[in-house]
Specification:
Layout lengths: L91 H13 L6 E6 L5 H13 L1 H4 L2 E6 L3 H13 L15 E8 L8 E6 L2 E9 L5 E6 L5 H9 L8 E4 L2 H9 L3 E10 L1 E2 L1 H4 L11 E4 L2 E3 L10 E3 L2 E2 H10 L3 E7 H7 L2 H10 L5 H15 L8 E7 L8 H4 L6
Parallel strand pairs: 1-2, 1-3, 3-8, 9-13
Antiparallel strand pairs: 4-5, 4-7, 5-6, 8-15, 10-11, 10-12, 14-15
Helix pairs in contact: 1-2, 6-8, 10-11
Length: 409
């Protein structure tokens, strides 16, 4: 009868994994020969190897990423949707891009960052703290302007940055004062109001909100409320098929015009999920449009299910966005995916640096890596689009966030 040697195996200490990691775990091995005798080897991360969905754009449908919607009937349990902001880690990718913009503009003072939808200051605090540590000369001339509809959010923004010792970097919005810098909007345009439209009986129609006999809100089709809807589709080069539905955001033009009138030199930097008109109005991939409701981290097609307690969003028409930007004198500077934008601005280098830091624990590293992977997953948040338009923008090579291009299938 064979005797199993259960004596402990002593391995060289590897402090990079932290004291909580047992390199020799008795329950894992069956014999001394099978037990690990050397420390684990750390391999560098290579995010640029992420190539995207296996089957490519041409064969992946709108529902292919959602297994709960590919069959008849409702699935058991809750549908969960996870979202996030473009931080990478403590604001570094956005920080890196802002630093490059400042240098391309010959280091203006002051350098203004106007963030629309600034919320309570999560992104602003991350950006400013990173700049404070890495580029204090930029922080000295930077003025951060939160733009919010709700004044309570502006107050919360101020409180957060004051607690971080950054109150002197905040400037209240002044739409009349010319400035040089960046107008930033992260997931703002998808929340603008849209007209729901479609083709019924061979004609363009609009889907309004009606009231059923029992008091429920229901869809009610009727003639378009404005000829601008048909004009937008024509300008986009779009012809909807019979029975197809979609959305038109006429508010997009006004938002762009209102966001940049005082921008003398610099960029309009937009981060959102969207597509060009030909893809957005594809009758095969998106026959019912893109309007969705989000409630308690769940996505739903029922727009009337939780009125007042859910967010309604729709994909951004990037073709119309470009036309609106050109109409106010902006020139295109770059367009890319969120994944490529983050990698181009150092997400991969960040992960490698954290990995090589002896102070990094395994739990901290795994948490950071998981967060980055969610942000750059091409089938998820990595597919968000990042677009930039400039005014008085100097000629030169692409910005780092728009220079990187991942593998194409």
């Amino acid at each position: 009868m064979a005797v199993v040697d259960e004596s402990p195996v002593v391995l060289p200490d590897d402090p990079s994994f932290g004291p909580e990691v047992q390199l020799d775990y008795p329950g894992y091995r069956s014999t001394r020969l099978r037990a690990p005798k050397r420390p684990l080897v750390t391999l560098p991360e290579e995010l640029h190897g992420l190539a995207g969905p296996v089957f490519g754009d041409e064969t992946v449908g709108e529902l292919d990423h959602d297994l709960t919607r590919q069959h008849a009937g409702e699935p058991l349990g809750e549908r969960i949707s996870v979202s996030g902001r473009v931080l990478g880690s403590d604001g570094r990718p956005i920080r890196n891009q802002l630093v490059e913009v400042w240098e391309r503009l010959d280091r203006p003072a002051p350098f203004v960052v106007r963030e629309h939808g600034a919320g309570t200051g999560t992104l602003a605090e991350a950006i400013l703290q990173r700049i404070e540590r890495a580029r204090p000369e930029l922080l000295a001339v930077l003025r951060y302007v939160p733009v919010e509809i709700d004044t309570r959010r502006v107050q919360a923004f101020g409180q957060r940055l004051s607690a971080a010792g950054l109150a002197d970097r905040i400037t209240l919005a002044d739409d009349a004062r010319p400035f040089t810098g960046v107008v930033l909007a992260n997931e703002v345009l998808d929340a603008l109001p849209v007209h729901r439209i479609g083709v019924r009986a061979g004609s363009l129609a609009e889907r309004f909100v009606g009231v059923a006999a029992d008091g429920r809100l229901v869809d009610a089709w009727g003639p378009p409320s404005t000829p601008a809807l048909g004009e937008r589709l024509q300008a986009d080069g779009v012809r909807l098929a019979e029975g197809q539905s979609g959305e038109v955001c006429l508010a997009l033009d006004r938002w762009i015009a209102d966001a940049v009138p005082s921008l003398e030199r610099g960029l309009l930097l937009l981060i959102d999920y969207g597509a060009g008109a030909s893809e957005l109005y594809d009758a095969v991939r998106r026959p019912q449009g893109t309007v969705r409701a989000f409630v308690r981290h769940r996505i739903s097609d029922d727009l009337y299910g939780h009125i007042g307690r859910q967010d309604l969003t729709a994909h951004v028409d990037l073709t119309a966005l470009g036309a609106a930007a050109r109409a106010v004198g902006l020139a295109p500077v770059g367009e890319t995916s969120q994944a490529e934008f983050l990698i181009g601005n150092g997400a991969e280098a960040l992960l490698q640096a954290v990995q090589a830091d002896p102070a990094t624990t395994l739990a901290g590293y795994v948490e950071l890596r998981s967060a980055l992977m969610r942000l750059i997953d091409p089938a998820g948040m990595g597919g968000f689009r990042v677009t930039a338009f400039g005014r008085g923008w100097p000629a030169g090579p692409p910005l780092a966030g728009f220079a990187y291009r991942g593998p194409r299938r």
